[in-house]
Write a structure and sequence with these properties.
Elements: H1 12-23, H2 33-49, E1 52-57, H3 62-70, E2 74-76, H4 78-87, E3 92-96, H5 99-108, E4 113-115, H6 124-127, H7 131-139, E5 144-149, H8 154-159, E6 162-164, H9 169-178, E7 182-186, H10 189-199, E8 203-205, H11 218-227, E9 232-235, H12 241-244, E10 249-250, H13 253-262, E11 267-271, H14 277-283, E12 288-291, H15 315-324, H16 333-357
Parallel strand pairs: 1-2, 1-3, 3-4, 5-6, 5-7, 7-8, 9-10, 9-11, 11-12
Length: 361
C-alpha cells in the first residue's frame, strides 16, 4: 500500500471515505415514553406474526437491547448474533447493528430472510478496507495466509483464509505462527499490532482503524485513574497501543463484560463503545462504570465513544423494516459460499479450542 498516512494514522484516502459516510448519518428525534411503548408493542406483535427474532449488538441503543431480550432474541457480539440466528427456528432475522453483521447473518443462514433497521449503518473498518484494494494487496504477497477481522464486508471475507473475532484472534494467529505461516492481517492496525506483540507472528498489517477506539487517549486515562485510583481499566484491543499498555484487562466486548462481573473492583474505566454500558450495568448493577476519555468532546470528536452508525439503529426504523420488509440484506450464493469457508474454519477452530479448554480433547 503506497498511500501516505495522515495524523490520525488512517490512510488519507480512507479518512475521506469515512468522512463522506459520516456526513450521510442522520439520527431520529427522540421518542416520547408513550411513543416508545407503542412502538415496542407493535414490534413485538410483528416479530410474532413474521416468525422473526431480533438480535442486537452490545453497542446499539439500550431500547433495542432490552427489546431483544424481552422477545427471546439475543444481545451479543457480531459472531454470536449470527450464530444465534442460524440456530434459531425463526424464518426472519432482524439484525440491529451495522451492515457487515447483517451480511454475516446471511452467510450463516442462507435460507432465512435478514432485515436491518437501516442499510446505511456501516463500520469505519469495513469502509477502510475496500475489497478490490485488499485483493490487490493480498495478490502482492501470495506467500502469506490472509486473516481478516469480522468487521469486514462479505467480499473481503471471501478473499481471506481465516475470519476471526477479537476474542479468538490471538489463538488463531498463534496457531498459524506455530506452523511458520506469514500473515496478512486486516483491517484494524491496532488490533493487528496487539496480536503481533502477543504472538510474535510475522504479520503485514492493513492500515485501518476504528473511529471509536482510535480516540481513546492514554493521557486522559492516566488523569482519570488519578481521580479513581482503585478503578480497573478495561480496554478493547482496537484501542491504540498506549491505551492498551496501561489497561488492566484487554479483551473483546464479551470478555470485558465477563471481567467486570468477576473482578473485585467497584469502579471501572471502560475503553470501548459506551453502548456496552447497558449490559455492564445489567450484569454488574452494584458497580460503577466510567467511559474512558476521548480525543475531544461533543462536536470536537468524530465518535465521542459511540459509533455514529450504530446510533442509526432505532425503534422507528426497526418497526418500518418489519412492517414493509425493507432493508433486506442480501449476499449472492457464490460470494456467500466463498465467505463461508474462512468463517467455518474459525467456527471449527473455536469448537476444538473449547473442547481443549474443557479437558475433552
Amino acid at each position: 500500500m503506497t498511500a501516505m498516512t495522515d495524523t490520525s494514522g488512517m490512510l488519507a484516502s480512507d479518512t475521506d471515505i469515512v468522512r463522506a459516510h459520516l456526513a450521510r448519518v442522520t439520527l431520529s428525534a427522540p421518542l416520547s415514553d408513550l411513543e416508545i411503548a407503542e412502538c415496542k408493542a407493535r414490534i413485538k406483535t410483528l416479530l410474532r406474526e413474521r416468525n422473526a427474532i431480533l438480535v442486537a449488538h452490545y453497542y446499539t441503543d439500550a431500547l433495542l437491547q432490552s427489546l431483544a431480550a424481552e422477545t427471546g432474541g439475543l444481545v451479543s457480539d457480531s459472531l454470536e448474533m449470527a450464530r444465534f440466528g442460524r440456530d434459531s427456528s425463526a424464518s426472519t432475522l432482524v439484525v440491529a447493528g451495522v451492515r457487515f453483521m447483517g451480511e454475516t447473518a446471511c452467510i450463516l443462514s442462507p435460507d432465512k430472510t435478514v432485515l436491518m433497521p437501516t442499510l446505511e449503518a456501516t463500520c469505519s473498518l469495513d469502509v477502510a478496507c475496500p475489497a478490490d484494494r485488499f485483493a490487490e494487496f493480498c495478490d502482492a504477497h501470495p506467500d502469506h495466509t490472509v486473516v481478516v477481522y469480522a468487521n469486514t464486508s462479505a467480499a473481503v471475507k471471501a478473499r481471506a483464509d481465516w475470519v476471526v473475532t477479537s476474542s479468538i484472534a490471538v489463538d488463531v494467529v498463534e496457531h498459524l505462527a506455530a506452523q511458520g505461516k506469514k500473515i496478512i492481517w486486516a483491517p484494524d492496525r491496532h488490533l493487528g499490532a496487539y496480536i503481533k506483540g502477543r504472538t510474535g507472528a510475522d504479520m503485514l498489517l492493513w492500515e485501518g482503524a476504528c473511529i471509536v477506539h482510535e480516540e481513546f487517549k492514554a493521557k486522559g486515562l492516566i488523569d482519570m485513574r488519578a481521580l479513581y485510583p482503585h478503578a480497573a481499566i478495561l480496554a478493547h484491543p482496537e484501542s491504540p497501543a498506549s491505551v492498551l499498555e496501561i489497561a488492566d484487562v484487554i479483551g473483546s466486548t464479551t470478555q470485558i463484560i465477563k471481567a467486570a462481573m468477576q473482578m473485585p473492583n467497584s469502579h471501572f474505566i471502560v475503553a470501548t463503545d459506551k453502548g456496552i454500558f447497558y449490559k455492564l450495568q445489567q450484569m454488574a448493577p452494584q458497580k460503577t462504570f466510567l467511559i474512558a476519555p476521548t480525543a475531544g468532546h461533543d462536536a470536537t470528536c468524530r465518535s465521542c465513544a459511540h459509533c455514529p452508525w450504530m446510533a442509526m439503529n432505532s425503534l422507528e426504523r426497526l418497526l418500518h423494516s418489519l412492517e414493509t420488509g425493507s432493508n433486506r440484506v442480501s449476499v449472492s450464493s457464490e460470494l456467500a459460499s466463498r465467505a463461508m469457508a474462512p468463517l467455518q474454519r474459525m467456527l471449527d477452530f473455536s469448537a476444538a479450542l473449547k473442547l481443549k479448554v474443557n479437558g475433552k480433547a
